[in-house]
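Support case: adenosine-5'-triphosphate complex. Customer-provided input:
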Amino acid sequence: MTKRIGLLGGTFNPIHNGHLQLANFVRQQLQLDVMQLLPNHLPPHKEQPLVTAKHRLAMTEAAVNDQPRLEVNAIELGRQQPSYSVDTLRQLRQQHPEDRLFFTMGMDSFVKLSSWYQWQDLLNYCHLVVCQRPGDQIPEQGPEALLWQQFGLSISELSNLPIAGHIVCLDNPLWPISSTEIRQQLLHGACASQLLPPTVAQYVADHQLYQQ
Ligand SMILES: Nc1ncnc2c1ncn2[C@@H]1O[C@H](COP(=O)(O)OP(=O)(O)OP(=O)(O)O)[C@@H](O)[C@H]1O
Ligand SMILES: O=C(O)c1ccc[n+]([C@@H]2O[C@H](COP(=O)([O-])O)[C@@H](O)[C@H]2O)c1
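Agent response - structure generated as follows:
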């Protein structure tokens, strides 16, 4: 029996309620067997996080502890080069030759997709699932617009999908939460407990993360 596997890559610095809402929304809408969260080791396009990959992995594990069908996959943590998604997807495709893979991202990521390493190969390995995020919309021109025009599907067309090759854009409610805002709050002495899963808020407090 083939599976429908969701993948959510992130820096998770720290993981927040927006990530969990995104993961669960996509899991339900696409009727996934599982949604795997993939913390990266060396984010390709971000300043390197001050908080180690080990802490970011532990927070991600703490966050999904009580979440059915959400799992952590630490596949990127063993690689010493930048955590390019195409490398991860190539590896996952080898492990799951017949399963449908759904690599999930917010619109802020999709609008910059053409800056990703070997971005034109991504759809050879997976489908892309794009969720709305405050501040960004499907581009009207440029490489991402062309990609969407060529490979975009509506949710009603999802029943008989191949294992890879399409883009689905979901009409999710907006979750106005970011790790940047949470780091700012923690730096200024707040506990950000409204924005973090309780286990993550506890981990942050126990390890005194983001206080400087
Ligand atoms: N609130 C949100 N709504 C929709 N998508 C989100 C949200 N938060 C994160 N994502 C998506 O989850 C993925 C991983 O996000 P990431 O770990 O970089 O969190 P972030 O909140 O964007 O971090 P930062 O503020 O440090 O840039 C990205 O594809 C991002 O677009
Ligand atoms: O492959 C790339 O070039 C690439 C460029 C930017 C981001 N990514 C991946 O996209 C996911 C979200 O990235 P970020 O920077 O928003 O945390 C995460 O898994 C990153 O490793 C991948």
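The pocket of nicotinate mononucleotide (ligand 2) is lined by residues 9-11, 38, 40, 43-46, 83-86, 109, 116-117 (CB under 6 Å).

Case will auto-close in a few days if no follow-up is received.
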